[in-house]
Structures are given as structure tokens and as C-alpha cells.
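Intended use. Records like the one below are meant for learning the mapping from a protein sequence to its folded structure. Do not use them to infer anything beyond what is encoded.
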Amino acid sequence: MDKTEEVGIGWLDLFRGGRAPLVIALTLGIWLHAADSLLVVTTLPSAVIEIGGDTYVAWSYTLYMLASILIGATTGLIALKLGLRIAFVTAGVFFAIGCVISAVAPDMAVMLIGRFIQGMGGGGQLALVYVALDRLFPNAMMPKLVALTSAVWSMSAFCGPLVGGLFASFGLWRGAYCAFALQAVLFVILVLVAVPHGRCNDEPDVSGGLPLLRLALLSGGILLISAAGSDPVLAPLMVLGSIACFGFFLRCDARSDDNRMLPPHPFSRTTLYGAGLLMAFFLATATSSLFTYGPFFLERLFGVSPLESGYIIAMESVAWGVAAIAIANATLAAERWLIRTGPLVVLIGLVGLAVTMPQGQIWPIMPFVLMLGAGFGQMWGLVIRRVTESAAPDDRERTSAAFPTVQQFGYAVGAALCSLIANALGFAEDAPAETLRPISVWIFAAFVPVALIAFWAAWRLGADPEDGEMS
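Structure written out for the chain above:
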């Protein structure tokens, strides 16, 4: 990349040159996926009172996550086959249909169908945003664009639960899903206006149909690792089965030539994009503890309300957005060190939470909650740019779409490992504080080695290829 490319890119430049409708459409896509994920937390309790199915509440999260990861993994391939505009419209329509199904659901079975379809739309929107950032904007704009999307995500962390809570408090939980369906329609309209029609001239031709076998293997691996946390007896077999499914998935995908879902050798440490995907997976896995068990510890050990605990956890997202905006003007000389030290900041945050969480006091934990988000935010836009730039031209769509998908998969694996650790240490809803305190230590401390792997991958990602450091 030409080093002079960085000069003169301001925040208003993102909206100039006819780009304003496109930027608004992409940020709306991020909002829909992020806010909907949090909206369900405050609307499901009211929904369960009306339609029943309390024993299946966890599946509303699992199915949304499963659909998001599956579609996200195929998004690069879909974008190559259909073009960005059709892919975006399809994702928006699926999201709207899923919201409508959830809004009119007479029972939990129909609600779960709606949640799965919402996940297909939301996961597609998220992955396509990353593809669009790479395809439709100059590379020099990437840090600011990612900072902007991070700010939108941070805003959703506060507004999503609040919007859902307002609808639920007035007995209008169905209206919340209707409101998001209408926003999805607006998203589709903006996409039709802003996203170029057809495929780019330099996009490679792809052949083959829907990769059903690979999707089945990916589904099996996700479901097995998700279920492992709830059954300590069968957990080892489920983990082994999950690893086998993912291994076969990667093997089948590598043999699929131009119908691949992922770039070649996606987790190889010898390439910049491989190091980036490794870092994204392990860092997401390492930081799953806070949003998985953090609310429970805050309510039981700190005595705060569910809403208060939600906003404490949301401060991680706020720190992410603030840090992303703060480094958006970073020079190329600073880029490599921001990338390399990001996981180190997260690592310090994990250690700090392991020490302070058992104490049951709010203020000592807050700096470390903020560090988890700031560590991500200081490098994320720079990492995305470096990862996509390093991919071959024929694989940039696959690489761009793989990045957020691998991150979501890391969160899913981390949540399952958290459950395994907590259950092994005697976690239960009615467990006394004396039992919860040691769990609150290990639920963070156990992931320090995982964060160290992410730090190692980030160190390689921050290398200067011209210096030969990646060899």
C-alpha cells in the first residue's frame, strides 16, 4: 500500500463522493445485528409469560448464533456468486421475515424458527459489511470506517436492552420485533440505492452449488461444542466430536477449489491473514467470560440489578468504540505496535478481573472491564485492513467475511468452555457466595493462556513483511 494513502483522510471524507447513503446503510446493518442480539435479552421474559417454552429459552440464543456463523461462513462465497447488492438485499429480507415470524409467534417453536431466520439475516449483514468495507472504500479509510461501526456497536450495547425493556414494560414485546422488521425494510431500500449493481469486473468466477456437507459439518461442530458445557459427563466426547467436525470441515473446504468458503490455509501462521484469523479466534475465546458469567457474578456477588449489570458489561463495548475512534488517525509506523499490544491490554484485563471480581466491589473491576474493550478497539480496524490487504485478489471476499465469522465462533467456543469450567467447580443458580468466588477467579484466569496465544498471533500479524519477519 502506498504510504501516502493515509494523508488527508478525514471523518467527513467517509460521507463525500456519494458515499453517505452507503455508509448509513452499512452502519444500519451493524445496528440491526448488534441491537437485536441484545434486544432479545429483555423481551424474551415477557414472551415466555405469554407463549410459554421457558425450557427452550437458551435455544433462542443458540439458534441465532448457529445461523449467524453458518451464513457468515458462506457470505464470501455468496457475494462472489451473486454480487454485493443481491447478497445484502437477501440478508435484509431474511432478517425482516425472521422478525415478523417472531412477532406473530403463537408458541416457542415458531419463535425459534423466527430467531434462526433472524440469525441468517443478521450474520449475513455483519459479514457483508466487512466485504463491502474492503470492496467499496479506499483502504486508507478502513480504520475510520471500523471505528464508526464500532461506535454504532457500542451505542447498540446501551440502546438494545433499553428499547427492548421499554417495549416489554408496556406489554408490547411483539412490537419490538415489528420495529426491527421495519428497520430491516429501510436497510433493504438503502442498499438498493447505495450498493452498486452486479459483480465487480475483477471478481473471480466461482462454480459449484451450496456446500451442504461443509455446512452440516460446521453445524455439528457448533452444536456439539455448545452442548458440551451443559453435560459434564459427555463433555469430553462432545469436544472431541466438535474438533473432528471442524477438522473435516477445513479439509473438505480446502479441496473445494473456487467453491471454497474460506481462504486457503485460513489458520496458517505463515501468512498475515492466517495470523489475523488465529488472533481473532483466540482473543474472542479468551474474552467470552465477561458477557457469559459476568452478569451472574455482578448480581450475586455485587448485589446489582439485572439492568445495572447489563450496563456494566456494556462498558466493554463503549471502551472498544472509544479506543477505535482514538486510533483512527494512527500512522503506519504506529500500526504494528497497536496491533501487537492490543492482546496484551486484554490479557492484563483478564488477570485484573480474576483478582478483583471475587471482592464484590464495582469500582475495582471497572478499569479491567474497560481494558478488555480498549484492547480490541485499539487494533481492530488496523487488523482488518492488514488481513484483507494480505489476501490474494480472488480471496478477499472470503477473507473479509471470514474475519467476523471466526470472531463469533470464538465467542461460542469461549462460552462453552466457560460453562465447562463453571460446572466443574460446582456452579449452580442457588450456589452460595463462598462457591461463586473461586469460580469467578478461574472463569477469567483459565483463559490467560488462550490470550497469550492471541498475543503470539498478533505479534506475527504486526510483522513487517518487507523485513522478512513472517518467514
